[in-house]
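Appendix B, record 7
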Amino acid sequence: MDWIVAPDPSGRALRDVLPSMLSAMGVEGFTDTIGIPPCRNALVLLVDGLGHELLREHAVDAPFLSSLQTTPPLTAGFPTTTVTSITSLATGRCAGEHGLVGYTFAEPGGGLLHPLSWTARSAPGGADDERSSLIEKWPPEQVQPHTTVLERAVAAGVDVRTAVPPHFEGTGLTRASLRGGRFRGVRELGDLAAELLAAAESPGPTLCYGYHGGVDLLGHVHGPGSVPWRMQLRQVDAFVRMIAEALPPGAVLGVVADHGMVDLDPAEAIDADSDPALSEGVRLLGGEVRVRHVYARAGARGDVLAAWRDTVGPAGAVMTGEQAIDEGYFGPVSAEVAPRIGDVLAIMRTGGVIRSAVEPGESALRGHHGSLTAAEQLVPVLVTGG
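Structure tokens (predicted):
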């Protein structure tokens, strides 16, 4: 399947960014596989949803960012979804190791964990208002037990700061992925800029991770490439240029993304709920509309695989979880993580989604990601300063 872009195991993936930055800072125990200029302090800004291909296609709206697009892109990992990618970035590990294998995935209680809220539906197929917290029953530190890159940096004497929206503090995803360092809540681009520049000007060594979600949000609502999306991209371009121009000597800024995005018509979708062939033998339907984890009832995996292959057809690739693991999509997979991966995976090509009535908000969106197309998998690594 020539449309599938598999994650890169050679050292040019999103998970390699923070180790490369720390190596460039001279911190022992880390290796630079990306090519970061030597520096005292490093800033990493993640622009949610800014895929390599989107940036290239809309260079006129982002002239400064595009001027930095001089090296090959990174691969985000699989699936190409925010919870997985941010955890890969922060831990330096693939999904098969860190365990956040999708937008939703099977949890030990028999439901689906939704990592953004760290909740599960109280019953399979239950509505969003029936979710219950899993913070106590399945703690984030148990789901993702590995030491993060941030924690390793702190142990090595680095001043680590995390500049993200205030409501991220103490959430399950933050506890699972961004453990380590000092939390710095930021509300808008102004205080995000202030935090990044304060870190850049620190006596060092200082590492600051910052996050901006506006490009992703407007891409989901209006579609990537829409006028609102382009206006947001212009703001981000001006923001990054302002930071770059204010960098003191010895500071490096790296701009990355967690995934790209494709523009899809929600009216053109496979409906997992109304098609009996897609529900027969299915225990849980996880993942998201571009890549589905399908959990089969006991003894039904073969029939589920055949039915989903027949229905999805050339709109995507349908395979067993074992095949996806063998192909290396999740990277090395631990025994603890393997049960979280679907018995069957449906990975969609550019023009398809698999929606579900229990996800009315997600199913109605215009922009989507999660799959292994180049538009979703390839992300930029834009570096300036030093």
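Remarks on this record: Residues 227-246 form the longest helix (20 residues). The domain at 14-96+139-263+372-385 is CATH 3.40.720.10 (Alkaline Phosphatase, subunit A).
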